[in-house]
Every structure is written in C-alpha cells, then in structure tokens.
Amino acid sequence: MTLPPLILTGGPAAGKSVTARALAQGRPRCAVIDVDDVRQLVVSGGVAPWEGQEGQAQQRLGVINACGLGRNFLASGIEVVVADVLTPQTCALYRRELPGCLIVHMTLDLPDARQRAESREVWLTDDEFRMLHESDTANPPDADHHIQVGTLDLHNQTEMVARLWGAAADDRL
After folding, report:
1. Which strand ranges, in their side-by-side order, compose the sheet holding 6-10?
2. Which of 7, 48, 104, 161 is at a distance of 20 to 30 A from 142, taking alpha carbons?
3. Domain span including residue 10
4. Is residue 77 assigned to a domain?
5. Residues 2, 79 contacting (CB under 8 angstroms)
6. What is the top-level taxon of the source organism (predicted)?
7. In a domain, 1, yes or no
C-alpha cells in the first residue's frame, strides 16, 4: 500500500523533522523533505520567511520546490514526508502542489517547546522562537489533523502520526 504524501507541521521543537525521519525509516521506500533545508539552498540573499515580502516570496518558492521534489519521488514509487512550518497560505499551496496530501499539525505549549529545544541545536533567536510558536498557535493551518504532542515521547508521537497516515491511505482505497 502506497501512502499519500504526508506534511508534518507545527511550531519550533514540535518534532516535525525527527518524526518525519522516524516514519520514513519504518517504510520500504520513503524520502524526507525538510523544507528548511530546501530554503537554505539560497546561499546568498536568503531571508527568513518572516522577513517581509522577500521572505514570503522565498517561503513560497521553498514550498513549490519541496513539492516538485515530492512529486518526483512519488512518480518513482517513493513515499514522501515533508517537514515544514505551515501558514494558512502555504497550507493551500501544499494542497494545490501535492494533491491528496495529508497535513498533520503537531502542537505543544511554549514551555514544552522550549524544554524540547534544550536537547538540540536551535538556529532561532529567542524572539524568533517565541514569535513562530505564537503565530502557529494563533493562526494554525487548515490541517487534516491537529494533535497535541507536548506529553508524547518520540516513539508515541511517531506511532500516532503513523496511524493517521495509514488511515488516510485506507480512506482513499
């Protein structure tokens, strides 16, 4: 059974990338596309998505490029998991560019996010971390599922998302 493209979203430290990798490792053929990595391909002149019109334009370009990669993997029979911080606007772009995708929004409280962030390298300033978390909470994307992950360890978080992903494939049969 081939699973639909999966988009994992949430604020900083929600576990998007680690969950994506854990899910992919459990599949026969699966690619992970971390959209932060795609955006960082712009070496000179790259700006963060929250830095004005240029940041928003580069954010959209990152989504379009990630979806192009995703479509190419899918056309070759390789399942796809994408990790990105979605806004309502980029959510609509994903739905247009990766038809049939399943979007799972992972949420957690700011103190839980900060605690999780302590265990890894964070590339955001404290203000950026807080701003992204608050924006994700106040203006969540139109996801298929919203799950609270603050009390879940990686294993339980991955299992919960895997069940949702599998159920989405069953629903499409």
Report:
1. 30-34, 79-83, 6-10, 102-107, 145-148
2. 48
3. 6-171
4. yes
5. yes
6. Bacteria
7. no
User: CA torsion 44→46→47→48, rounded to 10°?
Assistant: -140
User: How many structural domains compose the chain?
Assistant: 1
Q: What are the tokens at 172?
A: 């499409």
Report the 10 Å Cβ neighbour count for 146. Answer: 14
Interval 145-162 mean pLDDT? 93
Note whether 23 and 5 are within 8 A (CB). no
Read off the tokens for 47: 């700006």
Q: Is residue 144 part of a domain?
A: yes
pLDDT of 122 reads 60
pTM of the model: 0.92
Which domain CATH number covers 100? 3.40.50.300
Question: pLDDT tens digits for 72-108?
Answer: 999 999 999 999 999 999 999 999 999 999 999 999 9
Q: Report DSSP letters for 85-154, one per residue.
A: ---HHHHHHHHHHSTT-EEEEEE--HHHHHHHHTTS---S-HHHHHHHHHHHHHS----SEEEE-TT--H
